[in-house]
Amino acid sequence: MVQRESWATRAGFILAAAGSAVGLGNVWRFPFLTAESGGAAFLVAYLLLVVGVGLPLVLAEFVIGRRSNRNVIGAFEALGRSNWRFIGGLGALAGFVILSYYSVVGGWVIQYIIASVTGAYTSDPAAYFESVSVGANAIAFDALFMAFVAGIVVLGVRNGLERAAKFMIPSVVVLLVLLAGYGATLEGAAEGYAFYLSPDVSTLFGDALALLPDAAGQAFFTLSLGMGVMVTYASYLGEDRSLLNDGLIILVVDTSIALLAGLAIFPFLFSQGVDPGTGGPGTVFVALGTAFAEFPAGRAVGTVFYVALFMAAVTSAFSILEVIVAYVTETFDVDRKPATAGVAVAIFLLGIPTAIDLRYLTAYDVLANQVLLIGGGLLLAVFVGWAYAAEGTEELRTGMRGGDALGAVWIWLLRVPIVLILLYVLYFGVLATVDAMGAAL
User: Fold this and answer.
1) For 49-73, what is each residue's pLDDT tens digit?
2) What's the distance, Cα to Cα, between the start and end of the chain in Å?
């Protein structure tokens, strides 16, 4: 039987869980969604969903993981609720799909680190992105990124995930702080801050329902909800820790880095007159590449930015891969090394279409974030709120002082408002997925 590991330190768990949340979702996906959705109005909707929906669901995943000490699918069997294990299966599927195209974007980041050093994208950023985002190069660097991530997961929880997170997350913060500080000195930074931080009240209230699907999908993506990461990570925890305290710390770290990424990115765009709403998934490559190409320190700044983006991408990627590897090792009694290799190859193969045509990447992204993650979160809220409320509340109180009233509020948030919000978001997510799939096929 494969020996189960655990976190060496509380800091290791928090940094690894925060690292899963702090990834391409914060630095790649968040800025372009913010730009496409009107700036600060989207930011406000996102923050409200992170607190009102994200935190209760993070705690729900923590409760299931720590109480079961099992992988995302085996957890429901260990809890005596094997008829609900399809929720874990949906989460594992979501992670599988997300990592298949996430690794493609990770490959782009590696290419842009090299290009920042050589200046390859400075003459025509849009043309350069087109040349590296699809085709043989995209596939090759996708494979390289997956191999790097798999190498960390093979080392295990303490020697791989925990050590990598302890180095990479502080490094990402330092690099983004340096970039944000430099960006604040640029002419046009004030316009960038206004776009990012000054919401149009009429847009916020007039388009609130229209903002919900993308904002909810982003909240789930960036907090790694609905894909089993928090269940898996909490399963390596001891009983003496306050899940609420850990959840709050992770939420604050994740949200702070997302905000910091915007503070770093938008001043660069506005300083060079680059429209932040252009580029879609390629925003941090095309738009920022255009901005970096226009000022003298562009190569150095670009290198620092893409190195930070690479580390953020890796911390999320190895957490998603760990979810599926944990299931394989525990369910089929397979050693970690062959399990990791086999899962990584399967994910790489699934992602090849997204490295050939960006329409597939968009379709995968919409399917995963607006259907699979939201659907998984909805089912999780129903399970903990209605089928596992007493046991869930008991587990939440473990490691806390008191918490009776808090537990009751948490359960009723899961039972009613969160279920209703996610049903609404899921409806529009299904419509968006149908459109995206139609465009790709």
Assistant:
1) 999 999 999 999 999 999 999 999 9
2) 44
